[in-house]
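User: Hi! I'm working on a homework problem where we have to compare a predicted structure to a textbook description. Could you give me the structure for the chain below?
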Amino acid sequence: MARFPMIKNHELLSQKVYRIIKRDIIQGKLSSDTRLYEEKIAEQMNISRTPVREALRSLSAEGFVKLIPNIGIVVNHISPKDLLDILNIRQELETYAICLAAQKINEKDIDNLNVIIQQMERAVFTNNTLLFNNLNLEYHRNIIFISNNNKLIEICDNLHQQSERWIKSIVVKERLMHSLQEHVEIYNSLKKKDVDGAKKAMSIHISNIIKNIFKTDLKERTEQ
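Assistant: Happy to help. Predicted C-alpha cells:
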C-alpha cells in the first residue's frame, strides 16, 4: 500500500487528505482496485479517521473511489466504456465552453495560449509525451477558464481528472504532431474570435482523441 505523508500545516484536514489521495489516484500511484484503509491512512498522516472519512466520501461522490460491500473503499476502475462516456461528455461541454471563450477572450488570454503552444512544440520535437500531456491539459483548462462559467469549469475539471488517469498511460508519440496541429487550429480560431471555427476545431480535436484511443471497433470494446 502506498504511504501517505504526515499533515503538518493548518489547511482544513479533510481537504488536504482529499487533495493528496486524489493526486495519487490521478498520477497512478494508487492504481485501480487498490483498497484504502481509513485507519492506516489516518495513522500515516498523523490525524484522526474523521477527516479521512470525509475525504473519501468526497472522492466517492466524484467517482474516484467506491464502496464495495464486504470489502471496503477501493480506487474506482475506469473501463473503456467509462472513458468513452467521459470523452463524449467532454466533447459536448468543451465545444460549448469554447463558444463562450471565443466571445470573451482578450489579448492576455491569447498570449497565454500562444506560450503553451510554443511549449507543446518543444515537447513534440523532443518526444516528451508526459510534458505534452500536461500542457494539453493546461491548454484545455485555460480555454474553459476563459469561458467564465464557474459550474462549467468545475464539471470539466472533474472530467479532465477522470479521463487523464487513463489517457496518460496510452499517449502515442505518432499522435503528438497531429494533436499539436489541432491545438494550433483551435488557437487560430480563438485569436480571430471565430466562434463557429473554434467550435468545429474543438469538436474535431476531441473526436480524434476518441478515434486514437479506440482504434478497434467501439461497440465491441465498450460492451466488454
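For your comparison, note the following. The longest strand covers residues 65-68. The mean pLDDT is 87. Good luck with the assignment!
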